[in-house]
Sequence to fold (105 residues):
Amino acid sequence: MAWLVLIVAGLFEIGWAIGLKYTEGFTRLWPSLGTAAAMVLSVVLLGLALRSLPLGTAYAVWTGIGTVGTALLGIALFHESADPLRLACIGLIVIGIAGLKLATH
Fold:
C-alpha cells in the first residue's frame, strides 16, 4: 500500500510542477490554488509513504516520478525538445526508479 501512496504522491508532484507553468508567477488565482493544493497533497502523501518505506528510496522514487512525468508532459504540452539524448536520459531515470524499487525489501 505504501508504494501506491508514493506513486500517487509522485503524480501530484507532476501536477504541481506543471501547474506552476499555468500560474504565470502565481498571478492567476485558480491555477495557483490548484498548484498549492497539489503541493500539499504530494508532500502529505510522501510523508504517509515514509511510515514504512526507506527515506532515501521513497524520496528518490517520488522525485523520479515527478521528473519523468514533468519532462514528458513538457514535451507533450509545451513542445519541449524530444531529441534522442533527452529521451534516453529520461529512460535512465526510469531504470533508476525501477532499480530502487527492486532493491527495497
In short: The chain has four helices and no strands. The chain has a mean pLDDT of 97. The radius of gyration is 15 Å. The first helix runs from residue 2 to 23.
